[in-house]
Design brief:
- Helix 2 packs antiparallel against helix 5 and helix 3 runs antiparallel to helix 4.
- It contains 5 helices and no strands.
- By secondary structure, the protein is mainly α.
- It has a domain of 75 residues: Four Helix Bundle (Hemerythrin (Met), subunit A).
- 75% of the residues lie in helices and 0% in strands.
């Protein structure tokens, strides 16, 4: 009977530890590398170069997909996909707007650090 209890406690603690680790996201992720081609896409869109906007936005999208899977990264990927589809449909102004929204997510300040006293 004692062996079953010990085994169940060990299994439960291992499974809960795995869940707790997978629920957290990176605290200080650096998305600045994605912002460079995104800014180039915005500049191309403001200049009226649709093909360059699509090319740079697709590069940003591929870089964003290669990053760690976090909530902010998922928001950025969604906005980049929407910008590319709008640009391919010929809606240049809306595509630039989506790209600018993705840039605001990329440039958000890191969250506060916890702990450490007063």
């Amino acid at each position: 009977m004692k062996l079953k209890q010990v085994l169940s406690v060990v299994i439960l603690s291992v499974s809960l530890t795995g869940l707790a680790q997978s629920a957290g996201g990176p605290m200080n992720e650096d998305l600045s590398s994605i912002s460079i081609p995104t800014q180039k896409a915005i500049d191309a869109g403001k200049a009226g170069d649709l093909q360059l906007l699509i090319k740079e936005a697709e590069e940003s999208l591929s870089m964003a997909k290669g990053k760690t899977d976090s909530a902010s990264q998922q928001r950025i990927v969604g906005k980049l996909k929407r910008a590319i589809s709008r640009a391919q449909a010929g809606n240049l102004a809306e595509a630039v707007q989506d790209l600018e929204l993705s840039m605001t997510d990329m440039k958000k300040a890191p969250p506060p650090k916890f702990g450490g006293g007063s």
